[in-house]
């Protein structure tokens, strides 16, 4: 499977331990792309929470849907108002 951030790390020859174990991109507050999740904790139209290696991430907003989910990557669509990392 294609992993956007792994491709960047490879092309830039960045050491693995120099970056986080997860990556998140919020695109215009309408789409959130996350790599490195460890599972979904909460799923509603107002909040999506997922595990990361050392904590969790909460995405809050309205009309949130989990558009895609696989073993490492997830896409959340909707009006994204806040993204918070909790250790």
Task: Tell me what you see in this structure.
The protein contains one helix and six strands. The protein has one domain: Immunoglobulin-like (Sandwich). Helix content is 10%, strand content 56%. By secondary structure, the protein is mainly beta. Strands 1-2-6-5-4-3 form a six-stranded antiparallel β-sheet, with no helix packed on it. β3 and β4 form a beta hairpin.
Task: Itemize the secondary structure elements and their pairings.
Elements: H1 4-12, E1 23-27, E2 31-35, E3 40-43, E4 47-52, E5 55-69, E6 73-86
Antiparallel strand pairs: 1-2, 2-6, 3-4, 4-5, 5-6
Biggest sheet descriptor: 6 strands, antiparallel
The DSSP helix count reads 1
Our measurement of the CA-to-CA distance between the termini, rounded to an integer number of angstroms, reads: 28 Å
| CATH topology heading | Immunoglobulin-like
SSE sequence, one letter per element: HEEEEEE
Count of domains: 1
Annotated CATH architecture: Sandwich
Q: What proportion of the residues is helical, as a percent range?
A: 10-25%
- Report the CATH C-level class: Mainly Beta
- Low-confidence stretches are none
Label the structural class: mainly beta
Query: What is the number of strand segments?
Result: 6
Q: What global shape is seen? A: globular
Give the overall average pLDDT. Answer: 87
- Over all CA atoms, what is the radius of gyration? 13 Å
Strand order of the biggest β-sheet: 1-2-6-5-4-3
């Amino acid at each position: 499977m294609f992993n956007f951030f792994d491709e960047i790390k490879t092309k830039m020859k960045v050491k693995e331990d120099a970056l986080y174990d997860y990556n998140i991109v919020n695109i215009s507050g309408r789409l959130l792309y996350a790599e490195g999740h460890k599972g979904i904790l909460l799923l509603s139209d107002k909040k999506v929470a997922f595990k990361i290696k050392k904590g969790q991430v909460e995405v809050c907003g309205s009309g949130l849907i989990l558009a895609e989910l696989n073993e490492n990557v997830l896409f959340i669509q909707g009006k994204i108002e806040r993204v918070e990392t909790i250790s």
